[in-house]
Structures are given as C-alpha cells and as structure tokens.
Amino acid sequence: MAREKKTCVECGHKVKSLFIQYSPGNFRLMKCENCEEVADEYVECELLIIFIDLILHKTKAYRHLLYNVVNQESANVQHVLWKLVLAYLLLDTYRSLLLRRTNDESNVSMSFVLESLEVLVNVLSANFAFVLSFALAAKMMLVMSRGKEILLGVLISSYIKIFLFAMPVWEFPVSVIFIVDMLVLTSNAVALKVMTESATSRCLAVCFIAHSIRFLVDQISGPMSLKHLGYVM
C-alpha cells in the first residue's frame, strides 16, 4: 500500500512526509523540496492557533486543514462527506429558524410541524440551487476536475456557521447572521483557491454567484411555501 503524500502549506507542492519522529515528543519538521520552507509548521501548533489562522483566512491554514488533516484519498471519505452534508444542512436549518423567530414573532398561529416543514423545504431548495449554481459557475470560470474534493472543501470551510449557536446566548442582533454568511462566502473562496490554485478574484466570483442565488431562492421559496400551506396573512 502506497504511503499517502502530504502537502506543503507554503507552496502547495506534494511532500513525502511532514516530520520525522525520533521518539515520543521528539521530532523534526521536514522542509519542502520545492520552496525549501518548512512543509507544515502547524504540526507543532496548538489547535487554537490553527483556528485563529483559519478565521483570518490564511491559505497556509486551509492547506493544512484540507490536505494534511483531512485525508481526501482515504476509503472512508464518502462517509465523512455524508456527515458533513448532514451537519451543514442542520446548521442551515438552525439559521433559518433564527431568522424566522426574529422576523415572524407575530405569527404564532403556525404549528411546529408546519413551521418545520416549511423550513426544511426552504433549506433543501436553497442549497440545491447553491450546489447547482456553484457547479455551473465553477465550470465556466475555473479549471477543476475533482468535484467530490471541491464539495468536501466547501463543506469544511463553512465551519464559521457554528458561531450561530452563540446568538441566543449573547443576544446578538439579526445582522450577525448576515455577517456570518459573508464570512462563510469568503472562507469558501479561500478553500476554492487552495484546491484549484485559481485567481482569488475568480474564486470570489464563483462563491458570490452561488451564495447570491442561494439567498434569492431562500427568499422566494419562503413565501411560495406559505401560499401552498394557506398561511399568507
């Protein structure tokens, strides 16, 4: 069985290994043969440092996460992908519920079942439009061949959605939801740049198109589902 190769976080070149371990706690970081820099300095960094660099959208941190932490060539990557899809949809559903409770506080007559059904329809339709528009825009503007890898990267780089859980605790205004949405967009663009090695402007354009269409579909599908249920006031 061939040993999996890692990636230099500085230049993106493949390397045989990131470090040589002599004994527990005693290792030496390897240098990249291409750029002659340390291949992955995050190997000896704490998780908090990596998380901060991810929030700062540093490409080095994204290369570390997408290539040296997540093994995209492993046999169970499909299993990980489905888990990430489920987590993504759950976070998106939570986001929709936060918006609904903020904007529709006066509408208390709708039952929980019907409300949940409407939110589910909105989330599924909006994300279907997002995936479709993302694929079309990427095909026209980028050079890419590994769709599963790109999807995995987009899902992982949407980790910023977890900050939505802090809203009820700290009573943030609803505008924070849209700030999180913008951070998710830019995070997706950085991940796309890392995986396709395309220009930043093109990656931002692809993500902007996909997220804009997703937002429009979400705005349209809400009133449409209400009309079908007979709950338009």
Structural account:
- This protein has 233 residues and is mainly alpha-helical.
- It contains eight helices and four strands.
- It has helices at residues 47-55, 59-69, 77-103, 112-141, 147-156, 167-170, 175-196, 200-229, and strands at residues 6-7, 14-15, 19-23, 26-29.
- A two-stranded antiparallel sheet has the order 1-2. Strands 3-4 form a two-stranded antiparallel sheet.
- A hairpin with a 2-residue loop joins β3 (19-23) and β4 (26-29).
Keywords:
233 residues, mainly alpha, two-stranded antiparallel ribbon, 4 strands, 61% helix, sphingolipid metabolism, endoplasmic reticulum, Protein ARV, transmembrane helix
Short description:
By secondary structure, the chain is mostly helical. It has helices at residues 47-55, 59-69, 77-103, 112-141, 147-156, 167-170, 175-196, 200-229; strands spanning 6-7, 14-15, 19-23, 26-29.
* Rg over CA atoms: 21 Å
What is the average per-residue confidence, as pLDDT, rounded to a whole number?
85
β-strand amount: 5-15%
Number of helices: 8
| Strand order within the widest beta sheet | 1-2
Name the structural class: mainly alpha
SSE diagram, text form:
Elements: E1 6-7, E2 14-15, E3 19-23, E4 26-29, H1 47-55, H2 59-69, H3 77-103, H4 112-141, H5 147-156, H6 167-170, H7 175-196, H8 200-229
Antiparallel strand pairs: 1-2, 3-4
Family: Belongs to the ARV1 family.
InterPro entries: Arv1
Subcellular location: Endoplasmic reticulum membrane
